[in-house]
Amino acid sequence: MDKLAKSPANYVPLTPLTFIKRASKIYSDRTSVIYAGVSFTWRQTYHRCCRLAYALRSCLNVVKNDVVSVLAPNVPALYEMHFAVPMAGAVLNAINTRLDAKNIATILRHSEAKVLFIDYQYVPLASEALRLLLTGSNDGNSAQYAMPLVIVIDDVDKPTGVRLGSLEYEQLILHGDPRYPGEDVEDEWDAIALNYTSGTTSEPKGVVYSHRGAFLSTMSLIQGWEMGTEAVYLWSLPMFHCNGWTFTWGVAARGGTNVCIRNTTAKEMYKSMSQHKVTHMCCAPIVFNILLEDKPHERYKMESKVNILTGGAPPPAALLEKMENLGFHITHAYGLTEATGPALVCEWQTKWNQLPKHRQANLKARQGVGILTLADVDVKNKKTMESVPHDGVTMGEIVLRGSSIMKGYLKDEKETAKAFHKGWFLTGDVGVIHPDGYLEIKDRSKDVIISGGENISSVELESILFKHPNILEAAVVAMPHPKWGESPCAFVALKTSGTTTESEILDYCRRKMSKFMVPKKVEIVKELPKTGTGKVQKVELRKIAKSLQISNNTSPNYQQTRYQQDEVHDQDKLHAISRL
Amino acid sequence: MDKLAKSPANYVPLTPLTFIKRASKIYSDRTSVIYAGVSFTWRQTYHRCCRLAYALRSCLNVVKNDVVSVLAPNVPALYEMHFAVPMAGAVLNAINTRLDAKNIATILRHSEAKVLFIDYQYVPLASEALRLLLTGSNDGNSAQYAMPLVIVIDDVDKPTGVRLGSLEYEQLILHGDPRYPGEDVEDEWDAIALNYTSGTTSEPKGVVYSHRGAFLSTMSLIQGWEMGTEAVYLWSLPMFHCNGWTFTWGVAARGGTNVCIRNTTAKEMYKSMSQHKVTHMCCAPIVFNILLEDKPHERYKMESKVNILTGGAPPPAALLEKMENLGFHITHAYGLTEATGPALVCEWQTKWNQLPKHRQANLKARQGVGILTLADVDVKNKKTMESVPHDGVTMGEIVLRGSSIMKGYLKDEKETAKAFHKGWFLTGDVGVIHPDGYLEIKDRSKDVIISGGENISSVELESILFKHPNILEAAVVAMPHPKWGESPCAFVALKTSGTTTESEILDYCRRKMSKFMVPKKVEIVKELPKTGTGKVQKVELRKIAKSLQISNNTSPNYQQTRYQQDEVHDQDKLHAISRL
Q: Which NCBIfam families does the protein's record reference (chains A, B) (predicted)?
């Protein structure tokens, strides 16, 4: 047995790059990418990737392991770069477009990006980031760092002429060679992508994916979601989130069609669904609100069910039910950047179809079961690393192991070592395992509220608050309490249609939850403070909660704590996702 | 990038063993295996596997890389051994039950099997094989070889008491420990299974699979066939054929139900489909005849469509159409033992639904496109190793590369080296690539008939002959010809219902094919000669054809050339598969 050696015929590095080569051969004339008035076939997309990869190598001197960064919305160029950059042997770094110039400069410096692609819309933001990088106003280290080459991605449908320097994406494509096959992947452990976490509590960390991990995650997700061939995938989820939860690569694997949109408004999404007969889309549950609160004239007729994979936050049962009634079929997933996107999928069981709707919604809100390429998922007592019983009650830290987990954090041995513990990746999330083996998140470790020795899950409280007919957003944090140590403090934003008082909400809580769980304080606010990536800033809420405890009479000016207040607009709602 | 090292959390060997551990956790109460009056849940099946693995290690002293052979029909024990044997660190060798004692003895000797499990039904055959092994009557080498430990698998539903020695499967299970977690897979390149090719032209070769290859093939096939969760899989395909085309592992991956049957008669199959609401089954096209020619009282009502994955021989268009009319949905795959079963799947395209039925059937009869875990599939000129144009006409050898290709042939460096050529695995099959990228087999290399410099595909001729209303089986081989070098000679077996003469068939051929392709000779026979695995013995037919050429007036007594004539019965039809 042992004498049989690996050969190039029977041991080929696993990489998502095989998906596009395959698509170019067998789905050659199928539509690969649609964006506004432009569309491509798989043959064309592949040739554009070959050209770009060639141009990166020959015109821009990109070599193996170089980082190629990009700041762009879901346009065809960003899709193509998911293949072209690794085909050039380089590592794709898709930057979150909601970040401010300072954060972007930090990422460019830390990743040592050799090239930076900028969508025309983000030229002002990128210019400011480059200025910070150049002047070193950030940390004074600019002298040691070479500036990235800048290439503007003009709009491929309606070119604007906006430039920053002389290079433009389509010109680069023209310089390339469509016959260039790309560099061989020498080792499937080689890096393919670099994604920065948003870092609510610390500096952003650079999560590195291997070709192997990306390939396996992609396989698992098209599997776990049962995404068939000829899927029409709407890009409502930003591709910069874990490479679009791997569906950048996955749509190529299935020979599907990518429907790219620049803005994720209700109108744009409904229009795309109707026009292109969308079958699949991913989004955070907060997008459900956008889709449900659309204006009647913005809604187009959906001809068939649209499958939604949602994650990032447990979808409130009430929202799930409303969405299903509208004709969406929702699957809930859980994951995190470090796990190459979704790591668990709430796999539906036929027998659940017979349950009442609200019970179904509760089951669907659970995080579910590990995807097929994860070697194992467990919930463990963090101190003893012993597995919790499958009782749906005992909480522990959710831990994962498998080849779809990141390689580690770039240039951060300390954080990498902290993340990997005794053969497991620690998610930092707290959950339980139900008797049927399905996992349910109860909280982020740091978001657990310990009141009088009882663990209170802020997620659980938020989920109950969400069910209140007038509540749009809710977040619960710990507030210092002289007697109980900590007690829950709730922040809620109301729907435009409804009015409610703090005492009415407290009454509601008393009816719906155990006494010890009832928030000691409910603050009604206009909108919850969020990070540039749209995550609720619990750190800020905790500060406010602390001040509330000291002086209950002063209403906090929480608006001033807002991060990037000027950038908040509808689209931010898209990204209010806790982990993905 | 390069500094990020592998750790047990993010680099876990790929193995199908993760599928059953996962199934035991999340599908624990679902039915895993049904056989006659017996059924198990996934928790039970897993625990039985743990017990067996433990017993193999502790009672039978099995150690890493030991070969554990088994001679059994599709009973639960054979299914369980697909997990239990590798859990013990050993290599599963499921032997084709249609082989004769001499061949079985050869396999036991060559594989150095340490343990041999024998289904009670095969005790006489196995006894004879063991006798040959012991007396060395085969090649006189017995002295160098230790006899395998023998364990009888009695019928789990209705125990018969048949024994060969003292050990019995269920007793072994009882001796095991359900908490034994199995040996760790240290390296995904380690062997998991050993499957012998049937060797129509040479000695059987031992094809070795790695855990990695088995994992990846399984992932691809449940994907390529779009097998959803909760599938009910009927074991009409023997598990000893490439480990049931990987569905032994695949059904566990999807949390499906295995319906095991001992006999693949029409009655048994229809009854299982109806009783257990079967959703999926695999078989060779020859099984279509069994299902179509059933007696009316044997047919049970099928409540919903049954998906069939077929392969081994291109399914004749006429048969496909009849089967679809009966309520079967057929997907065609192509593969071979060396590729861990199916390597290409004829992925259906929605637009084809609008074509006329016969055109659809022709498209479906093509071998299709590479599965997702194959790095590449191509058709190449064997001399130059250049790819043929995608014109549907130019023939070349079908070549594959990827991690689902076998490790190699056990203890056969020469054949292994021959199979791997310039980074490709040579299938020995001849095909074309159509403009849409779909591949179609034209012939086995050695089955191409070269007549007057023209390549004639015997498969193509057979396919035309199959369409004749009175023809049940057809095989075409080369016959020496004084003028053309070679010319086609057809052997046909007629349906019980029909009568036809040679000249009528020749007339039919003249109407349906190019002149140079028309067989120079048509022999009507009662049944085609087949190997123990049911493959048509073209070697034998060639001998007959040669004699026909010399003396056209002597009708050959082809029955005497038959291999294992006494073993031929209905079930053999199941295995008349050219490659899988």
A: PRK08162.1
Largest CA distance in chain B: 78
Q: For chain A, how far is it from start to end, CA to CA, in angstroms?
A: 43
Beta strands (DSSP E) in A53-100 are: 67-71, 91-94
Contact B1 A401 (CB under 8 A): no
Q: Are A7 and B423 inside 8 Å of each other by CB?
A: yes
Q: Which residue, B45, B24, B579, is CA-closest to B332?
A: B579
| Alpha carbons A74 and B407: distance in angstroms, whole number | 42
Determine contact: A559 vs chain B, CB below 8 A. no
Alpha-carbon gap, residue B245 to B309, rounded angstroms: 10
Contacts with B28 from chain A: Cβ below 8 Å = 436-437
**Residue pairs spanning A and B at CB distance below 8 A:** 168
The encoded tokens of residue B437 equal 């990228």
Is it true that domain B448-575 has CATH number 3.30.300.30? Answer: yes
AA letter at B205 = K
Residue B325 makes CB contacts below 8 A (sequence gap 6+) with: none
| Ramachandran assignment for A184, one of left (phi > 0), alpha (psi -120 to 50 degrees), beta (any other) | beta
The CA angle A96-A155-A19, to the nearest 5 degrees, is: 65
Report which of B226, B216, B342, B206 is spatially closest to residue B284, judged by C-alpha positions.
B342
CATH, range A18-207: 3.40.50.12780
Cβ–Cβ gap B7/A420 under 8 Å:
yes
Question: Smallest Cα–Cα separation from A81: which of A135, A151, A179?
Answer: A151
pLDDT for position A365 = 85
Give pLDDT, residue B453: 62
Residue B168: CB partners within 8 Å, gap ≥ 6? B151, B152, B153, B154
Q: Are residues A436 and B228, on separate chains, in Cβ contact within 8 Å?
A: no
Nearest Cα neighbor of A22 from A78, A86, A83, A91 is: A83
Query: Which residue in B has a C-alpha nearest to residue A218's C-alpha?
Result: B372
Chain length of chain B: 580
**Most A CBs within 10 Å, among B2, B6, B10, to test the A interface:** B10
How close is the nearest chain A Cα to the Cα of B1, in Å? 6
Rounded to the nearest 5°, which phi and psi values hold at A79? -60, -50
Q: What are the chain B neighbours of A91 within 8 Å (beta carbons)?
A: 1
Comparing CA positions, the residue from B296, B64, B77 lying closest to residue B168 is: B77
Number of residues that this document lists for chain A? 580
Q: Which helix (H) or strand (E) holds B546?
A: helix B538-550
Q: Using CA of residue B518, residue B519, residue B520, residue B521, what is the dihedral sign? A: negative
Read off the amino acid at residue A577: I
Separation of CA B181 from chain center: 31
CA-nearest of B498, B338, B471, B322 to B402 is: B338
Which CATH superfamily groups domain A454-575? ANL, C-terminal domain (3.30.300.30)
Q: Residue A12 and residue B375: Cβ atoms within 8 Å? A: yes
The two tokens of residue B172 are: 């072994």
Which of these, B434, B307, B437, lies nearest to B369 by C-alpha position? Answer: B437
Q: Percentage helix, strand, coil, to 5, in chain B?
A: 35, 25, 40
pLDDT score, position B499: 82
Residue contact A11–B403, C-beta within 8 A: yes
Question: In chain A, what's the furthest Cα-to-Cα distance?
Answer: 78
Which residue did the predictor score with more confidence, A538 or B557?
A538
Q: Tell me how far apart the alpha carbons of residues B132 and B18 are, in angstroms, rounded to a whole number.
A: 39
Q: Does B19 touch chain A (CB under 8 A)?
A: yes
Phi/psi for A415 (5° steps) reads: -70, -35
- ipTM (interface predicted TM): 0.84
- On whether the CB atoms of residues A488 and A476 are closer than 8 A, the answer is yes
Report domain extents, chain A.
18-207, 454-575
Fold of B43-184: Rossmann fold (3.40.50)
